[in-house]
Amino acid sequence: MAVDGDSRDWDGRWNHVKKFLERPGPFTHPDFEPSIESLGFLLETCKILVIGAGGLGCELLQNLALSGFRHIHVVDMDTIDISNLNRQFLFRFGLPFSPLLLCPLIFYFMMDSNLKFHIIVCGLDSIIARRWMNGMLISLLSYEDGVLDPSSIIPLIDGGTEGFKGNARVILPDMTACIDCTLELYPPQIHFPMCTIASMPRLPEHCVEYVRMLQWPKDEPFGGTTMNNTTLCVVKRIIPAVASTNAVIAAACSTEVFKMASSTYIPLNNYLVFNIVDGLYTYTFEAERKENCSACSQVPQDLQFPPSAKLQEVLEYLTENASLQMKSPAITATLEGKNKTLYLQTIASIEERTRPNLCKTLKELVLSDGQELAVADVTTPQTVLFKLKLTF
Ligand SMILES: [Zn+2]
């Protein structure tokens, strides 16, 4: 289909994009060849999956739609709430821009879909979902005689924001550092909502809670009858800054998507940090692959324990170790040719049946040196294999 003849486009609609695609420049990729064909690829062929349609995701959708991408699919687990302005924006702006944009209410899994996406963009606030997606893309890689088939690589552009801080990164599975390679950068999540409210209130709800729980009892303004003014102050100070973080990170991610899809410029290598906590600070560094990354290294993971260690200790290691950070690991072992579930938390009846194993030692469970343990967890679509190394 001729792009200019498309009824959705008016004359010169994509001139801003053509400037990047149809002429050389001092910063273009060394192999870039200006072409009038490139725009057609962006408009008609390139399929992008955006995961997350919250504050960051909606900014991403807007930027991508305005950059010429039309095949944008959105996955979001949340439903649209009347108070959620971000998602309402989708209906006001997103749909007219991009007729093929799917409503975030439609939730589907990559595995069930026949779609082959060219690029995945994450605008998530969940590390678990990110890790799962990362693992998914690694599982889709194909090898021939041990050599990676480059056409099986689906780039992952990952954006993350937390209040006044953000990051954008480009991940090429099995080529650059993956999410799990740098897991130590994410501190294990702290389950003290009060802390978030007191130190980093970033949502209107946090701000209101901040005032209600902390500021109000302390100040007792207006004789303790109304808190509207104080609340407004906090909201006015914090919300614009958080919105800016989302806008900047979304812009960085969309730029990377454009670079990746058009091959016009060298992609980000590979981690951008952005911080507006105190002034503005940003830099880029190359996150390195971790040799024994549990997601992308294909190296069996060692578990070192004395035979007297209890299964509970192994479980704690899997959840607390900074480079594993599993959530509810299920451990199975093949013993005498049979699969045996040592512990499984997510199904109540099995949890009850396997719970006594937690107090047993590895010796009592007849686990010997070199025993393979298969661990399944919500942080990965694939089972992670560990090798037990008994220490004496
Ligand atoms: Zn990795």
Automatic annotation (TrEMBL):
<dbReference type="InterPro" id="IPR035985">
    <property type="entry name" value="Ubiquitin-activating_enz"/>
</dbReference>
<dbReference type="GO" id="GO:0005524">
    <property type="term" value="F:ATP binding"/>
</dbReference>
<comment type="similarity">
    <text>Belongs to the ubiquitin-activating E1 family. UBA3 subfamily.</text>
</comment>
<keyword id="KW-1133">Transmembrane helix</keyword>
<dbReference type="InterPro" id="IPR023318">
    <property type="entry name" value="Ub_act_enz_dom_a_sf"/>
</dbReference>
<dbReference type="InterPro" id="IPR000594">
    <property type="entry name" value="ThiF_NAD_FAD-bd"/>
</dbReference>
<dbReference type="GO" id="GO:0005737">
    <property type="term" value="C:cytoplasm"/>
</dbReference>
<keyword id="KW-0833">Ubl conjugation pathway</keyword>
<dbReference type="Pfam" id="PF08825">
    <property type="entry name" value="E2_bind"/>
</dbReference>
<dbReference type="InterPro" id="IPR033127">
    <property type="entry name" value="UBQ-activ_enz_E1_Cys_AS"/>
</dbReference>
<dbReference type="InterPro" id="IPR045886">
    <property type="entry name" value="ThiF/MoeB/HesA"/>
</dbReference>
<feature type="transmembrane region" description="Helical">
    <location>
        <begin position="89"/>
        <end position="109"/>
    </location>
</feature>
<keyword id="KW-0472">Membrane</keyword>
<dbReference type="GO" id="GO:0019781">
    <property type="term" value="F:NEDD8 activating enzyme activity"/>
</dbReference>
<keyword id="KW-0547">Nucleotide-binding</keyword>
<comment type="pathway">
    <text>Protein modification; protein neddylation.</text>
</comment>
<keyword id="KW-0812">Transmembrane</keyword>
<feature type="active site" description="Glycyl thioester intermediate">
    <location>
        <position position="195"/>
    </location>
</feature>
<dbReference type="Pfam" id="PF00899">
    <property type="entry name" value="ThiF"/>
</dbReference>
<keyword id="KW-0067">ATP-binding</keyword>
<comment type="function">
    <text>Catalytic subunit of the dimeric E1 enzyme, which activates NEDD8.</text>
</comment>
<dbReference type="InterPro" id="IPR014929">
    <property type="entry name" value="E2-binding"/>
</dbReference>
<dbReference type="GO" id="GO:0045116">
    <property type="term" value="P:protein neddylation"/>
</dbReference>
<protein>
    <recommendedName>
        <fullName>NEDD8-activating enzyme E1 catalytic subunit</fullName>
        <ecNumber>6.2.1.64</ecNumber>
    </recommendedName>
</protein>
<dbReference type="GO" id="GO:0005634">
    <property type="term" value="C:nucleus"/>
</dbReference>
<feature type="domain" description="E2 binding">
    <location>
        <begin position="303"/>
        <end position="391"/>
    </location>
</feature>
<keyword id="KW-0436">Ligase</keyword>
